[in-house]
Every structure is written in C-alpha cells, then in structure tokens.
Amino acid sequence: MSVSIVIVDDHQMVRDGLASLLHGMDTDVEVIGQGANGHDAVELASSLHPDVMLIDVAMPDMNGIDATLAIREVDPDVKIIAVSMHSDRNYINGMLDAGALAYIRKESAFDELSHALGDVLNGKVYLGEGIAEIVVGAKSSPCNLTEREMEVLKRIAEGKKTREIAAELFLSDKTIETHRRQIGRKLDLHSVAELTKFAIRHNITTIN
Amino acid sequence: MSVSIVIVDDHQMVRDGLASLLHGMDTDVEVIGQGANGHDAVELASSLHPDVMLIDVAMPDMNGIDATLAIREVDPDVKIIAVSMHSDRNYINGMLDAGALAYIRKESAFDELSHALGDVLNGKVYLGEGIAEIVVGAKSSPCNLTEREMEVLKRIAEGKKTREIAAELFLSDKTIETHRRQIGRKLDLHSVAELTKFAIRHNITTIN
DNA sequence: TTTTCCGTAAGGGTTTTCCCTGAGTCAGTT
DNA sequence: AACTGACTCAGGGAAAACCCTTACGGAAAA
C-alpha cells in the first residue's frame, strides 16, 4: 500500500523537483495531486484525502498557515509537512500551531524530506536542522508589538513620515513619535531600513 | 557521451530537485557538481569545465549575474541557463547581458528546463514562457545607479547612517549626502523604507 | 482595589536627514 | 580641445527623526 502525497507550492519547478525526489525514494509513495496556493491545498485535501501533504509556507492568495488551518477542518487526519524557504520564527510557530507535523527548509538537504516523511507517517513530529532551536529558543523576537505599533510600523515600512502617519490615523505627531521610539526599543532595531526588513519578514508589509 | 552539468542554487532542496529532474530526462546528462552561491559557481566552472551550468539568479554573497560574468572569464565555452524565482526585467537583462543563453523561471513547468537544455546545447538561446515579452518590452527600470551609488545604497539598506557610510568608504559626509540625493532622484524613491525594498528586490542587500 | 499595560499627548533638546547651489578632478568620448 | 559623466567635497538652511521625561484615561489583570 503506497503513501499518497499532495504537493502544494507556487513554483511549478519546485513541485516537479519534489515529486521527482519523492519518486526516487525507497518508501513507496505516490504523488496524487499538486497545487499552487492555499486554496488549491484545501480543495485537494477535501477531494483526495491524501496521507501526506507537502505545503509551502509562503504562497500568494492564501498562505500555508491559513491553508493548514482550513485543511484540519476538512480532513483532520492528513499529515502536513511544511516546506519553507525561510526559518522565520513566526512562520514556524504559525505552521506548527496550525497543525503541521513537520517543518523543513528548502535550504536543507533532501534526506530531511525523507526523514520528515518517515516520522510523520509514524505519528511523530519532525523538525529540520536548526528548526527545533528556533522553536525552543523563542523569546528573542516574540514580536511584542501592540496593534497600534503594528499599524505604525506598517506605515513606516511604506516610507511614510511621522506627520503623514499621524494624519492617516487621526493622531498627534507626538503620539506617532512615541510609538516609533517604542517600536525601536522593543525590537532593538534603530533604523528605518532594519524596521522595513523586519516588517517584510513578518508580513507586515510587502516588498513592493 | 553524456552532457556534464553543474547546478548552482542557494537551496539544497531545489538543487536536489533539479538534479533529480535532470536524471529522469531522456537526454543523457550527468550532474558533476553543485554550488550554493556565485563564488561556488565560478570555482566549479574553472575546475570542472562543465558543458552546462544551471544558475539561480538571486543568491547570497555573489548573485547569478556577477557569477555569470566571472564564469565567462574563466571559461567562455560553458553554456549558462539562468533559473530564477522572479521575472524581474533587471534580472533577466542582467543575466542575458552577462552571457546566459537561456532564462527560465522556477514557476514554469519542468519541460521548459528540458527545452532550454536542448536549445543551449544546439547553440540556441531559449527564453521561458513570457520572458521574451519582458525582454522586448524592456526600457522602464534601467537601474541607472553607478558603482558608488550601489555601494552607498547597499549600506543605506543595511540601516547605516550617512556618517557611518562615509567612515566605511573613507569619504566625506557631504559626498555620501550627495550620493543619497542622487540615488533618490534617479530612482524617484524618497524614503529609506522604499530604498530598502528596492535594494532587496534588486539583490543589493539581503532581507536579514 | 491596586497594579500594569496600552494608547494618547506634550515640552524641549540633539542629531540626522533632506535639499539647494556651486565647484574641482579625472577618465573616457567626440 | 571640448564635453560628458562619475566622483569628490563644501556651505547653509529647512525638515524630519531621534531621544528624554512626564502624564492622564481606560481597560485588563492581579
């Protein structure tokens, strides 16, 4: 009895690559479906009910975290392996909290995928090289930011100046200044450039 | 006589995937080396002299464009296929100008890779789905920045302040100020946040 | 109920950036 | 020889950001 697998990633070539890798494995696996975004993932989960799904975390339209949450609604039994470009703490925790059983990075070697597959099939959790440390060593950037601070940071990362942000939020310049300083203190990032990168990493703003 | 190939991509899993795909092709190919960045690419080109190199455009340390330029110095005969996440005009033109013979996206299907490989081996140029249109319809974002301006922009996007950049480059504060203004004018981007995003998109800095 | 945190705001000062004009050198082109 | 463009630097002023402390109302938690 072979293991049925669905691959979801927004890059066709990555999907083909993963499929090819799975095909070359010693475990008897069969790729029964592929998708390009979170919506595809949910549909495929409910229609095909695969044993395992490989899901990319960062995808357009609907990301891996939301997809995982939705999939657990339609089929709580499917075992989800998160495959990501980033080892961002928020992504990792997001996916694991959502119900993924394994998290591996694309940077990592192929045998991590094999290992992850073996572990999740046995009901175990597998975290790729360096992932466990990030999960455990949480604490450093818990993104303590409050709602308001997020709103301000978002606008800072869009290149807006204090006065513009104040006008947009109907607040005093001084209030925005206070938020700016508070954000800098909390994140220990003291330049707009670093704040912008932080905002991008944490999906608070987009790259465009 | 098989075709020797070297794969350069900063993601191990993507490399493995591509290798696996190549292995399953009808053409007789052999992957003789892999690298994770531009420096690896140049070294592998000069030591292995492969027939074809698959090179990712966006990589840390040394990107695909610079790598391609350097490779053409050490081995003008190696045929280079650019494999990229983005269909950014600057990336495409950069790679093709540098000497790549084909440009395909990871979003595209696997058979584009097969097609590109066949074409470059026959001395032809291959551009993936939609790439040709972008090349033809070029013009818009020529990224006019000079060497110096790139160095300054890189440091701006790292969150450094004028004085620090001046010290690093052994220049006057006023000179850096002039460069800053010139960069802003050329790109029509007037905030550090937007400049940072531009720098990230153009691989002048990293997200971290 | 007292404490704590969030959000709001202000006063006041320092530092940095932004923007202008002008200008000199040097290399490569025409 | 004249020109263009890259790179360098300066003076000076306006705007913005940075940094400090203080403070008050409300909500949530202890």
Question: How would you characterize the overall build of this protein?
Answer:
Two copies of one chain form a homodimer. The first copy, chain A, is an alpha/beta fold and 208 residues long. Helices cover 50% and strands 14% of the residues of chain A. The first copy, chain A, is built from ten helices and six strands; from the N terminus they run βαβαβαβαβαβααααα. In chain A, helix 2 (38-48) packs parallel to helix 3 (64-74). Chain A is elongated and about 65 Å long. Chain A starts with a strand and ends in a 7-residue tail after the last helix. The relative contact order of chain A is 0.10. Residues 137-141 of chain A have low confidence and may be disordered. The interface between A and B is large, with 42 and 42 residues. Chain A binds a DNA duplex (30 and 30 nucleotides) through helix 7 and helix 9.
Question: What brief labels describe this structure?
Answer:
homodimer, 208 residues, alpha/beta, six-stranded parallel sheet, 50% helix, DNA-binding
Most extensive interface, residues per chain? Answer: A-B, 42 and 42 residues
If you compute it from the alpha carbons, what radius of gyration of chain A comes out, rounded to the nearest whole angstrom?
20 Å
Average of the residue pLDDT scores of chain A: 84
Judged by helices, strands and strand pairing, the structural class of chain A is: alpha/beta
Instruction: Assign a percent range to the helix content of chain A.
Output: 40-55%
Tell me the β content of chain A: 5-15%
| Helical segment count of chain A | 10
Overall, the morphology of chain A is elongated
Low-pLDDT segments of chain A:
137-141
Count of extended strands of chain A: 6
Biggest sheet record of chain A? 6 strands, parallel
CA distance, first residue to last residue of chain A: 47 Å
The helix-strand sequence of chain A is EHEHEHEHEHEHHHHH
Oligomer: homodimer
| Lateral strand order in the biggest sheet of chain A | 2-1-3-4-5-6
